[in-house]
Write a structure and sequence with these properties.
alpha+beta, Jelly Rolls, 3-stranded antiparallel β-sheet
Length: 141
């Protein structure tokens, strides 16, 4: 196998579940033969040519990529946002332990919202039928 950044099937559970993880692909490799990104939950295998970028909700979509050919090079640069940063803010800029001790009413409210937070986060993503309208709203194209 060549020099590559390869990941096996996983979800980045430490990342913010409702946010996007930016992945940039680089290196000289034949994207027709390898380096594809696999989105297991969505049952998709997508060619990922060098110089391409993708944004996926990496905490909630199981993903990985395919190997490249011997003597090729594939690298990836990934940017993400830690879920812990969002929890820190939700807990009133304190740890979970401190929040549980000092503000049990806040913890009770947050615990009761857990299912709704998932729904709210996924509602921010475009559905297939909304992609064109959303693109026009964002980019004016």
């Amino acid at each position: 196998m060549g020099l590559e950044s390869i990941t096996l099937k996983h979800a980045d559970t430490g990342n913010y579940f409702g946010g996007g993880c930016h992945i940039h692909s680089g290196g000289p490799y034949d994207h027709k033969k390898g380096g594809h990104i696999i989105l297991f939950n969505l049952k998709l295998v997508v060619e990922f040519p060098p110089g391409s970028d993708v944004i996926i909700p990496s905490a909630s979509v199981t993903h990985g990529n395919t190997p490249i050919q011997p003597s090729e090079i594939h690298v990836a640069f990934t940017q993400f946002c830690s879920g812990g940063l969002f929890r820190w803010v939700e807990y009133g800029f304190q740890t979970l332990k401190n929040c549980m001790l000092k503000n049990p009413k806040l913890m009770e409210r947050l615990d009761g919202m857990a299912g709704q937070r998932w729904k709210d986060a996924f509602a921010r993503f475009s559905k297939v039928g909304e992609l064109h309208t959303d693109r026009v709203k964002v980019f004016g194209l």
